[in-house]
Amino acid sequence: MGKVSTLVSSTFIVLGLVVNGIHSWNYEDEDTKGVFRWGDQYPECDGLNQSPIDIETARVQVNRDLTVEIGGLDETHETWIRNNGHTAQLGLLDSPKPNLTGTAVNGKLYEFAQLHFHWGEKSDRGSEHSVDSVFYPAEMHMVFYRKQYGDIETAVKYKDGLAVVGVFLQNSKTNNPNYDPLIYAVRQAPDYKAKSFLPSEITLRQLLPRNTQKFYRYSGSLTTPPCDEIVTWILLADPVEIGEQQLEVFRHERTNYVSMRSGSNRIDHNYRYQAPINRRIVESSFNPRISFSTPLNARAIKPFYKNVFFPSY
Ligand SMILES: *[C@@H]1O[C@H](CO)[C@@H](O)[C@H](O)[C@H]1NC(C)=O
Ligand SMILES: [Zn+2]
């Protein structure tokens, strides 16, 4: 059985934000509500099984029996996107929703809830996870909740409540037309709490890399408060390419506070710093020691941990 987080108010929306309509946390480096101080209000953010992490391929355990099956990837959906103050979050209007199962989640059935993005000010950084300390410009999270719990608010109370598919976004010179409807909608809704429909229906397949069978799996947490340690992470190894111009649209989303770092109310970065892996083991469905392509513009950055030092920019 999982446990009930007493800190979570009834208005809490998973991975989305908002406790009683006030921003109680942010991505600032040196704010009392900032990314290094989330644990003050949300103790689980200081837990031992937090996300994101760096994937050290030399220490990954290859497990050829790991599978992930996502159902409904090719079905088209009427889709909306909302700026929740921390990210651009996409939801599907119509049912049935896509689902996820496989040995990677011990054969349990999960249902699609939402997807959203994490990005950085520039394309040298922005993903939350990294592979051998190499970051990508952005990362997409497709959030699924365990269907038997009925809804996501209930599911987050259980250890096996969520499965999140993480997808690295690599920048390219040319735009990815598969992302055009989504980017168009993000551009239409730059303001805090703004919502817009995508101009055409999309499939989830459109947003994924061709190969979804090469992935890493580990147990971790939400990467936003309240940081519940209830997530089976499925991180796809292959990135999907999107245009640098398309990435820039995310960086012009706005929130309702002014960043001390940039002096503007743009959501110019929304990634959490990494957590130590501690006793956890990362498994992979493939041998990562054989094929790993280094992203185009990414550079290796040693991960830094909470309370070790403040990064300077
Ligand atoms: C998963 O989704 C697919 C596509 O909508 C559907 O055909 C299938 O029945 C679903 N699986 C379960 C177990 O509900
Ligand atoms: Zn996320």
Automatic annotation (TrEMBL):
Keywords: Glycoprotein, Lyase, Metal-binding, Signal, Zinc. The keyword RNA-binding does not apply. Residues 1-24 form the signal peptide. It catalyses: hydrogencarbonate + H(+) = CO2 + H2O. SUPFAM superfamilies: Carbonic anhydrase (SSF51069). The keyword ATP-binding does not apply. Residues 23-286 form the Alpha-carbonic anhydrase domain. This is Carbonic anhydrase.
